[in-house]
Design brief:
mainly beta, seven-stranded antiparallel β-sheet, globular
Length: about 550
């Protein structure tokens, strides 16, 4: 069998991997998207299925008002003492000298929960993980943030003992154990005890094309840690034409037969035909994804990526793996016949509840109640799923009767509050109910049809919308019967929904493109929109 990377396509960053008996689990960052933390499972490292989101209540995760790319950064999933341990960071400030964020711990005996009420740990820095030593003691490992302008913000990796009995950290045990290399930006630490050493795996270089993973080790937990000699353990920085780019931040896992693998984040950039293949390095509309590499060990027991430090598209699967493929756990066409949203759908910052909408008010429909605009950081009636392929079609149909220009509902492609587009039913003074296409590009808002917005016939209840994404661009179409489609003559640049484009003007560029349905009513009258179905079909 062959592992075909990335194993988790679309926005699935900062993987933390653990094996429990014969099952592997990967936990990923979700940032401002709710519910928090995606967990996939696999029996063979080849086939993966999304199974749960542990942070599904506001008791565990309250993100109302969080900034773009705030929220859940780099969760850590481990298993010890007969239960799962999940450490996660809720980041409130993403820009400027401060990174206000709180680290929490929750546990569960079953991966599906119930998860315990969160234990507040600290706010020292993000990317925290929990190390379970073989003497029973536990330690929080995290990067430490330094706001002082005359110091580097990434101050090193800090280790602090955690008391299970007291359910709190013991601050007097805290110590910086590793400062990283001259590449700087050391983060994403995980500690493993093997071969008579404590191994520290950490990311460096920032989560862009300079990203890398380094390894250090020590005979003593608190150091001194020696960095692995030679090149970085994992990086594609000097391999600009490698299929996988941005390789770095990740975690190690051992198979039942003693083989080793490393799950890591990666990006797959594309270029416009008019651009150089190396500058810019490209545009990652699918965000940061998860790949898996095989790990070997040299005579000195230093780890190495089998096949080269740049990371491979295809990797040999474990010798003891028995292939167990999964069926898709989402319908290409979701008719909203269930009482809960499909697991692949997400909302922004807050849970889907009666305040945002309903799946039962109009059976066979997703009802969304008009809330804030797509630039709102507190409440948006938006339900969306990840882009997971460079080319796909998505489609919906909406019943909606707007009465003013502040009301609009339709199909959305979204990166964050400043980068999105929408084809919508809205209202204008000329024709009443109309179709318009809008875009927000770095806060610059454009209505493409303006006074030429397309009138919706009075006898039409459902307006059908479609988006056709074709790697570097996408277009919208509409229909009044779901059969005859009319293309909107507007071609949108897909790079606007990429990490790399957002990063040019904003420091929180950590998610990926989503497609979904939204209902905006900033007039405050809470006009309802009923969506009959949603389809997502990859090419």
């Amino acid at each position: 069998m062959i592992i075909k990377n990335p194993v988790l396509k679309g926005f699935n960053a900062d993987p933390s991997i653990v094996r429990v008996d014969d099952t592997y689990y990967i936990a990923n960052s979700t940032f401002e998207w709710f519910p928090g933390v995606q967990i996939h499972e696999s029996k063979d490292l080849v086939n993966w299925q999304l199974i749960t989101h542990p942070l599904s209540t506001t008791t565990l995760l309250d993100m109302k008002g969080n900034k773009d790319s705030g929220g859940i950064w780099a969760p850590d999933l481990s298993y010890a003492d007969g239960k799962f341990w999940l450490v996660y960071t809720d980041v409130k400030i993403t820009e400027g000298p401060f990174k206000d964020g709180t680290n929490y711990l929750t546990t569960a005996e079953n991966i599906y929960g119930p998860w315990s009420d969160p234990i507040k740990l600290n706010g020292v820095g993000f990317d925290a993980s929990l190390f379970h030593d073989d003497d029973g003691k536990k330690y929080l490992v995290q990067m430490e943030w330094d706001h002082r302008e005359y110091r580097h913000a990434f101050n090193g990796i800090k280790l602090t003992e955690y008391s299970v009995e007291q359910q709190k950290l013991l601050p007097k045990t805290a110590k910086i154990i590793y400062k990283g290399t001259d590449v700087k930006l050391v983060e994403g630490p995980h500690i493993y005890k093997m071969f008579g050493y404590y191994y520290l795996f950490a990311a460096e270089g920032g989560t862009v094309y300079t990203h890398q993973e380094v390894v250090a080790r020590s005979k003593e937990l608190y150091g001194m840690y020696e960095t692995q000699p030679g090149e970085a353990f994992l990086t594609a920085y000097d391999s600009p034409k490698n299929y996988l780019q941005k390789c770095g931040h990740g975690a190690l896992v051992e198979t039942p037969s003693g083989e080793w693998y490393f799950a890591h984040l990666t990006g797959r950039p594309w270029h416009h035909a008019t651009e150089s293949a190396t500058e810019p390095r490209g545009w990652c509309t699918l965000g940061r994804e998860t790949a898996i590499q095989k790990v070997g060990w040299d005579e000195e027991k230093w780890p190495m990526i089998v096949g080269g430090k740049q990371g491979a598209k295809e990797v040999e699967a474990p010798k003891d793996a028995i292939e167990m493929p999964f069926e898709l756990n989402y319908l290409e066409k979701d008719n909203f016949d269930e009482k809960e949203l499909n697991i692949h759908f997400n909302t922004l910052r807050v849970p889907f509840n009666d305040y945002l909408g309903s799946l039962t008010a109009n059976p066979g429909h997703l009802r969304l109640i008009g809330r804030g605009s797509l630039t709102n950081e507190h409440e948006q009636a938006l339900v969306a799923r990840r882009w997971q392929a460079f080319e796909f079609d998505a489609e919906t149909a909406v019943s909606y009767q707007p009465e003013n220009h502040q009301q609009m509902a339709g199909l959305v492609n979204y990166y964050n509050t400043q980068h999105w587009s929408m084809i919508q039913v809205t209202w204008n003074e000329i024709n009443g109910r109309v179709i318009e296409v809008t875009q927000n590009d770095r806060g610059n808002f454009t209505s493409f049809l303006k006074e030429e917005a397309i009138k919706v016939p009075e006898n039409v209840e459902y307006v059908y919308f479609k988006v056709k994404v074709r790697t570097d661009h996408y277009t919208y179409a509409y229909s009044f019967d779901g059969i005859e489609w009319m293309d909107i003559p507007v071609e949108l640049d897909a790079k606007i929904l990429s990490d790399d484009y957002v990063n040019q003007t904003y420091g929180g560029f950590f998610t990926g493109a989503f497609v979904g349905m939204a209902n905006i009513d900033y007039s405050g009258y809470e006009l309802e929109a009923d969506f009959d179905y949603f389809s997502y079909k990859e090419k």
